[in-house]
Design a protein that fits this description.
polyphosphate kinase like, Endonuclease, Chain A, single chain, alpha/beta, 10-stranded mixed β-sheet, 20% strand
Amino acid sequence: MDNSKNVDSLSTENVESTPLLEKLAAPKVLKLTDYGNPDYYNNRELSHLQFNIRVLEQAFKEDIPLLERLRFLLIFSSNTDEFFEIRVAGLMQQIEFAREHVGLDGLSPQAVLKEISQTTKIQVDRQYQAFNDSLLPALREKGIRFLRRNELTDKQKAWIKRFFYNEIMPIISPIGLDPAHPFPRLANKLLCFIVSLEGRDAFGRETGMAIIPAPRSLPRIIRLPNEVCDEGDENYVFLSSIIHRHAEDLFPGMTIKGCYQFRLTRNSDLDLEDEVEDLAKALQGELLSRRYGKAVRLEVVHNCPRPLIDFLLNEFGLTDDELYQVKGPVNLTRMMSVCDSSEKPELTFQPFTPIYPKFFNKGRKKQESVLDIVAKGDILMMHPFESFTPVVDMLRQAANDPNVLAIRQTLYRTGSRSEMVNALVDAARNGKEVTAVVEIRARFDEEDNLALARRLQEAGAVVVYGVVGYKTHAKMMLIVRREGRKIQRYAHLGTGNYHTGNARLYTDYSLLTCDKDLTNDVRKLFQQLTGMGRAVRVRKLLHAPFTLKKGLIELINQEANHANEGLPAHIIMKMNALTESHLIKALYKASQAGVKIDLVVRGICCLKPGIPGLSENIKVRSIVGRLLEHTRVFYFANNGSPQVYCSSADGMVRNLDMRVETCFPLENPKLLNRVKKELDLYLSDNVSSWALQADGSYVQNRPSRGQRRRNVQEKLLTSLANFGQ
């Protein structure tokens, strides 16, 4: 079933125009261009790869604290893992099943895979060079040491030996390879060792080779106790080093000729049919197979002999293009525990405390609830600079408010034991009508979401899984309260997930409102998600997969019309990714009309700025810093009457055509002006921003001689949060 065609027709033809869309002028005919020219577009996957490289570049910046540089190096590993598990796996699958898709850029899957392999190998070499030659020596100087086998003292050797016999040997299962013991089925990203053996075992077998899978229950980094280390130092040893040291104990009587780390990456995307009788049961079945998808990448330690490498490649059906030889641990991501647990705060970013906005503090003194405060007017917060606690408090208070009748909420990435879920459980137990739209297909959070769905159901909440074929990615909460003789609705709309942990790491906007039209729109969207019927007519919201794409394009065309009439025209769009072709073409046309366009796109951007006659009025920048940029904001100058929208959606096909998303207006002039000022800060950044070039490369912006250093995240931390005080 081709859902994209289905949804595109719905979003532009079959849905009644909203009052918002009816206000927008019909677009004029703009300058014609061959918008199908592949030279006008960046490849989606290669642009994604460029973002990962920008993350890696943070590890080389000496003005970033040392452990944070290590963290960025490890995030690059984590991002690269997911890139291969999903994006590279998808390209390989296209080739395997002869369903090759050539995008607007004109590159075939084979060409893209070749470029990915060549580029990634260069960057992985840079990563390990930085790890070995820069970060490890610098950490050692600061008392954080990762000990090699030849550096261990006698006390440390004795402790490690006891640890091996007590903690590792009882649960590890080496597998000799022979006709009775074929090559084992290895799980995705599992640390393994291939061992070259010499000699005969107790049964007279002489296989010459064995595999040691390291159980996932074993820590990959072990901190040595203080009693066997110098005072004040943090000393670590890798699990791989311990297994290397004691490999012969796993094969008594045999001679170990070599022991080499490797790790296999597999396709981890889930493939659910659109027509399933029980979505949760089908998803559980898919989760079991995720660990054993088709092989897409082999990482091997650099000193592994070529015959053993060829053996592994042949076993997994891979070629040298999918081979990555690394000079260090093959599972660097597992070192993140060191960044999180180190006792040296001077090597990390200066801490900050999100502020509890002052209007809430005033209300608290008057013993007003969050709902009472929101009743006085819309409230906008920017996390993590401003605390996410008011959102949690609003739900928690509603759960215990005898006048609250019903609560409805979407849950995408939350965590089964989060404060938000606890409040929903309490609300259901207190007799409220609780409806949760749980997206159990949120990638890599599926198991958590199945668990929270079960927990909510056990508490008496109504749980629905959205609409098959359309992920529910909208971030919205609706609270219905009886106030005297009337029913009052309150809503939260956001750009980020209801995850209190992410709310400390991701930048996102939250709007709390009791606006009659907006809350009624939210009510209608919940009705559409949980019930059945024709697409609903809303007054203020734009919503995917119906009116969001069309609405954004018409807002862009509106600016183009103003430019054609000689009026000032300006568009600022901030999002995580931009790939949707209709949106890109609308921006190209607006640029040709003379609209000034500033795009802040954190990751993938298929649009090419600065092409004469096409996009010379478009500038694209990416912000990569301490916090993950996650806000989606759209600003349109509108001839002196600015329009600002915040959204859960990025400018991607999947968001605009294949997901349930919301895009909500900011109508309060103070809130609108605030967001415009914050967008201007992003456009002025000359420290953490990167400028996209017409050839698809990125150049880091730097202060020119005599220019003041401007870091947008530091500015927002200083102005909004308790930071550096």
